[in-house]
Amino acid sequence: MSVSGLKAELKFLESIFDTNHERFRIIDWKPDELSCQFNVTGEKLLIIHCNITESYPSTPPIWFVDSDDPSLAQVLERLEDVRKGSTLVVNLIFLMHFVIHCTH
């Protein structure tokens, strides 16, 4: 994917998940990195980071979270099972689904 295509995808995500979104917010992005905030319970906020390689989307993004919670580590490991070539949108849908089910 071209840099301009990746920027367009990131801007699109930011327009949907802006800083006023109730559950999920894109808090910062660059062409090689994405930082998101997930409001899990109304009080518990998770900051989730994503490194985007130059070979994206054929190489999936690398997701990580600043937490010692083993269930969150499992969530991010499951993202590795998301098919190569999937877009960030697909990754975010899986991420939100897994986080909601693992934290409730």
UniProtKB/TrEMBL annotation:
It comes from Amphilophus citrinellus. This is RWD domain-containing protein. Residues 8-77 form the RWD domain. It holds the Pfam family RWD. It comes from the Eukaryota. InterPro entries: RWD_dom (IPR006575), UBQ-conjugating_enzyme/RWD (IPR016135).
